[in-house]
């Protein structure tokens, strides 16, 4: 069973048998929310957290990754620790030992309450990140053995909880689908495949099919259109727009 180590940032309080990390006074404090797993990550086993609470005062939210630092050997927790022997996803950038090594396909500054963030070490020592069960591809390679999970509960993110397989069914991990061409070039079937790939959106595919929504038409839709005409809950409508924006930005790089 995954747990957070009791040694954590000075603004963190741990609840639920050390599986929930809360940053105290989140409106007044931005950081000092670093948490570690109490044991090293296990090869081929996804470590996953759920975002429980956010605020809207700050510009960024949550940092996720791994480190070789053994939390039980530490005497003080500060961000400086993560500048050495650590591999992190910060916003949409990958950081290795304190150096920005380039962009990643996932931007975690935009996470919302209920979103699930995960990571896994593969047998070939590569490291992947997940959002709501979707594999966003390789982030790091040649990781050393015995790395611990790191979650920095900072910025807008003020509470997260570990999802344990023993207590809650873990989200099925799916490979992130790829779609050829820019979104404006997609035909109706590609749009339907795209909508189906987004968690909880499969029931709405038939509507996109019957209305003959191609890529150009999809780009004209906003959250209100998806909510009013397609009768999507607001959260799903926001998720569709977010996925489309990220995919379009990726194709325009």
From TrEMBL:
GO molecular-function term, one example from the UniProt record: ubiquitin protein ligase activity
Domain NHR positions: 1-165
Pfam families noted in UniProt: Neuralized, SAM_1
Transmembrane segments annotated in the record for this chain: none
Residue intervals of the SAM domain: 186-253
PANTHER family: NEURALIZED, NEURALIZED-LIKE PROTEIN 4
Name recorded for this polypeptide: NEURL4
Organism: Mytilus edulis
């Amino acid at each position: 069973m995954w747990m957070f180590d009791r040694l954590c940032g000075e603004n963190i309080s741990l609840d639920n048998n050390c599986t929930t990390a809360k940053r105290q006074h989140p409106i007044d404090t931005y950081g000092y929310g670093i948490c570690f797993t109490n044991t090293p990550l296990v090869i081929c086993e996804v470590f996953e957290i759920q975002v429980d609470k956010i605020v809207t005062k700050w510009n960024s939210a949550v940092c996720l990754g791994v480190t070789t630092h053994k939390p039980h050997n530490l005497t003080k927790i500060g961000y400086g620790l993560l500048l050495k022997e650590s591999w992190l996803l910060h916003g949409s950038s990958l950081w290795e030992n304190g150096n920005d090594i380039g962009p990643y396909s996932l931007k975690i500054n935009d996470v919302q309450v209920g979103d699930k963030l995960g990571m896994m070490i593969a047998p070939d020592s590569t490291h992947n990140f997940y959002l709501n069960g979707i594999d966003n591809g390789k982030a790091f390679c040649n990781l050393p053995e015995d790395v611990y999970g790191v979650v920095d509960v900072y910025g807008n993110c003020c509470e997260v909880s570990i999802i344990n397989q023993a207590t809650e069914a873990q989200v099925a991990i799916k490979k992130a689908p790829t779609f050829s061409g820019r979104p404006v070039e997609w035909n109706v079937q590609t749009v339907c495949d795209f909508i189906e790939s987004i968690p909880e959106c499969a029931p709405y595919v038939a509507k996109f099919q019957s209305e003959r929504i191609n890529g150009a038409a999809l780009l004209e839709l906003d959250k209100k259109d998806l909510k009013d005409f397609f009768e999507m809950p607001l959260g799903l409508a926001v998720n569709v727009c977010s996925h489309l924006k990220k995919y379009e930005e990726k194709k325009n790089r």
